[in-house]
Structure formats: C-alpha cells, structure tokens
Design goal:
- The N terminus is likely disordered.
- A hairpin with a 5-residue loop joins strand 6 and strand 7.
- This protein has 636 residues and is of the alpha+beta class.
- It is elongated and about 140 Å long.
- The longest helix is centred in the middle third of the chain and has 138 residues.
- It has four domains: 118 residues, Serine Threonine Protein Phosphatase 5, Tetratricopeptide repeat (Alpha Horseshoe); 101 residues; 120 residues; 150 residues, Histidine kinase-like ATPase, C-terminal domain (Heat Shock Protein 90, 2-Layer Sandwich), CATH 3.30.565.10.
- The protein is 75% helix and 7% strand.
Amino acid sequence: MSKITLQVKFLIFLFVFGTALYNDVVGQTHNVGQEAELILAQYQEAKSDKIKLELISQLVRVIHYSDSAQKFYPEAIRLARLVGDAELEAQNLNRLGVYYRNMNLQEDALKLYEEALTISRLADIPVQIGHSLNNIGQIFFYQDQFEESMNYYKEAESKFLEIEDNEGLAYNYNGMSLVLAAIGNFDKALDVINKAIKIREELGNERQLTVSKFNRADILMSMGDYKNAEPDIMNLYDYGMANDKIRAINALEKLVELKLKTAKYPQAINHAKEAILLHEEKPYSESMIEIYQMMYNYYFDRGNPSESKKYVDLLEREKDILNAEKTKNYLAGLTIKKQKDEIASLYREKELMEINNRFKLYLSFVLFLLAFAMFVVFSIYYRYYLKEKRNLLTLKEKQKQIEAQALELDRLNIVKDKIFSILTHDLKAPLDSLWGMVKLIDEDNLSQSEFEEYLPIISQNLGNNSMLLENLLIWSRSQMKGMHVQLSRLNVHKLVEENIRFLLSSGYYKGQVIENYVAHDIEVEADKNMIDIVFRNLLTNALKFTREGDQIIVDTKESDNIYTVCVSDQGTGISEEGLKKLFGNDFHSTNGTHQEKGTGLGLILTKELVQKNKGEIWAESTLGSGSTFCFTLPKL
C-alpha cells in the first residue's frame, strides 16, 4: 500500500468516525440539547469573567461536534486571555483547531495548534503541550512531511510519558503508527499501534479501541498478513452494525479487498453485495467507490462484460455523487472560514470598542480641540488648494492649447511641404515640357509632323496635371479643414457614366473596355462632388494600370443598410506589400503601364472623401491578375 493511499484512507476513516460520533451525539440530541441550554443560560446570567470562562468552556466540550460550537470558541479564548487562564486558552485553541481540521482547513488548524503550543510552553502545562504537539504532528502527516511529523510525535510521547497521561499516549501512538507505515517501517508501526491498543483496552474506550484496531488491520494488510488483519476488520464491522452503518461499510470495503487478495472470490462478492444494501440505507460514497472499482476489475479480468459494465456504471454514478458532496463540503469550508474571519473581526471590533469607551471621557475634550485645530488648518489649506487647483487647471488648459497648436502646425507644415513637392516636381516637369515645345514652335524649329507626334503626349500631360490639380486643391482644402459635406440625392449609375465619358477623352485611356454594370435605379444620399472625385480617381487608377483591350467593370452589391460599389480591372495588379501601403498617410505611387507618374495623393483623398460620406474603402488584388477597389455608401 502506498504512502498516499494510507493517508487518504486514514483521512476517510477519520471522517467516518467523526461523522459517526456526530451521529452518536445526534442520537442523544434531547439530553445534550438540554444540558447545552442549561449551561448557556447559566453563562448568560454569570457576572464573573472567570465563571463565564468555565461555563463556556464546558459548553463547547458538550457541543464540540456541532457547527454551532464554532461561534463560542473565540469568546472562550478571549475570556481565557482576559482572566489569564493559559490552560483553558490552550485547550480551546486546540479544540477549535480540531474543528477546522475536520473541515479540511488544515492551515487554519495548524496556526491554532502552534499558538496553543506556545501558550502551553510559556505556562508549562504538560497536558496541553502534549496535545498541541500531537495535533501539529498530525497536520504535518497530512502534508506528507513525515520527518517533521515524527519529530513532533516523539516530543509529545516524551511529554505524555513524563506526566503518565495514558489517554494522550494512546492518541500519540495511534498517530505515530500511521507515520511509520507511510514511510514503510511496518514492523515498527505494528509495535507502536499495539501499544495504543493495549492502553485503550485498559481505558475501556470502545470507539477509540476500534479506531486503533482498524489502523492495525491496515498495517497488517500492507505487510501481507491478511489472516491477522481480518479479526480487526471484523471488529470494526461488528461495531458499525451495532452503532453506525457507515463504519460497517468501511469495514466491508477492507473485507472485499482482503478476500480478493486471498482469492476467496465468492466471499468478496457477498461482502460487496452486503455493502451495496447497507449503502442504500446509509450512503457512504468513499468506500463504495473503492468496492465498485475492485468488483469492476475483478469481473473485467475474468471476461464478464455484463457484470463489469454494471459495476463501472455504479462506479461512475458514485463518483458523480462524491464530487458533488466534495463541492458542497468545500463550499461549507469556505463558509466556515468566512464566518471565522467575521467572528474574529467582531471580537476585535468589540475589544476596540471597550478600549475606546474606557478612554472616551478623557479624550473627548482633547479630540474637540484637535478637531477645531484641524478644521482651522483644513479651511486654510482648502482655500489654498482651491486656488492652486484653479491655477493648475488654467495652466493645463494653456499647455493643451499650445500642444494642440504645435501638433496642428507640424501637420500643416507637412501638408505644405508635400504641396510644394507636388508643385515643384509633378506639375513643373509637364509644364516645362509644354513650354519647350511652344518655344520650338515659336522659333519654327518644329515641323508640323513632329508637332502632331508630340501632341498626344502634351494632351496626356495636361490631362494628368488637370487631375492632379483637382485632387491637390480638394485635398489641401480638406487638410485645412475647409471641406464640408453637402448631401444630395445621387443616381450612382449616372455619376459613373459621366466619369466614364470624361475619362474616355483623357490621356489615361488606351483602348480599354469600360463597363458600367451599376443598376439604373440605385440612388444614395451623399456629396456629389466628393463621390464624383472618388469615381474619377478609382477609374483613373484602373486606366493607369491596364492596357489596350483590358476590361474595367463598375458594379454594385446590396446588403441590409449599404451599397458596395466596386471598380475591378484586369491590369497589372498590386503586390501584397503594396496593398499594405494603400490608403495610408504616406504618399505611395507606382508608374502605370505607359509609365504614367502619380503622387499617391489620389487614394489618400479618395479614402477621406468616402469616410466623410459615412463609408469605408478597401482594395483586393493579386500581382499580375488585376485589382478591385470597393467602397460603401449608406442607403437612403
């Protein structure tokens, strides 16, 4: 048996016996309830803190296994500190720690045990020192810190031997045996648990004796001594059948395991069936999961699919029940922890209130003078603060204005530089060419045939300049915040047709086929001049990057609230890197199929105009396979 399995089984068994003891208490509810009510009434009428401490300590001993005990422990501890009774303080700290341990709040329990140990040592109270050491050893055992656990148990053993406390020794040996078994020292573990059993037989504590014998059975089974383990398991079974069926189920789990290991399969099956019947009467999922698992493995190994299927179904159902129960217990633990914190907070608040009441009379006048002085200081400071705040706000506003003006000035400088660049390079070169040609004509240095040859080039350059100037003027006005949307009802088909007719006579037209597939009845509400420029720029781009015979199509798609207008071409297309640069703030341009030059301004302006008309624009393209530029316009 592994160390982890041994610990888990001990925790489960501890829970079983805790539950059983609680059931024993519930079975005596009438008597316990009457005794608790009597003690509580006496406590409420008591005048002396010492008497109150004795009564509340007696009360928590009576109701120790009930949830209601938790709220009385902090008061018992507070009273013990108040009257200076270190023994009752340590005792109640240890008992409260046991309560938290049973609720799986191990860290909280450990803090209480350590506090009890400190108090017990300072006051030299051997019994409470021993119990505190035992309790701390148990927590370290749960946390797999076996060496530390054993050290605490050995120190507790020496303390109990010193004062001849046999009951404490029995608890000590019981816990120590578990640590020894966990580290694989089974012979020593068996020797120690036998000591615990002998003491408990002499004390006549049947319940604790059953616990120790069952622990011995676990050790014997780990050693493979099934014959001697069986009587101890049967002892638990008999005790459980007489007192609580949960303990009987726990014993049946071990009996099933024992019979399977000793190849007494019919007896194992009978024990499992008996456990199932008891489980229906008194549910206990932890042991039943182990039984179902063992029976499933047994039938699966023997090739009995029907029985193995039955037990695996029972196993899964029981796991679900256990998981739900664990979740419930976890939430209960959180609730208890929260209640603990709230109770501690209430007691701290109560203590503070008592201290405040004692000094209230003496401090009231001082506090009044202090409050008055603070009021005067605060008034002066507040007036100064308001003045400084107003000055600061004024300063921040001026700073924001200066920063905004600086940013705007930087932006306008960039715009200005770009405009000058366009005027210097993109407009100057065609005009210089035109001026040179005019000079040649004027000086009769150009023949008629040469003039006719250069005329299309002049026309193209002038057309390019005209388009560039138009874009430049509109964009410049937009950048200077002088452009406003003038909405009107537009027929999209007519607007496309007008732009196609205009561009057929421009220098960009090279014999391409331009198709207007926009439906005649599509109308939108937008700024005509802006959308006109949008169409002109997109169609110009399409003409620029296509060759003679290539097809350019303008079409629309309709959705719920918008029209999507697309200009598609069969031109040179755009690379993936080029697509990323479109519609950005930088001026990016590429020469056309006839080396037509551009500034990159057209698409920047197009994007801005589309957005001003509550639309979006994008492009799709593959290098060498044409491009599609789309933008949206809201429906009427």
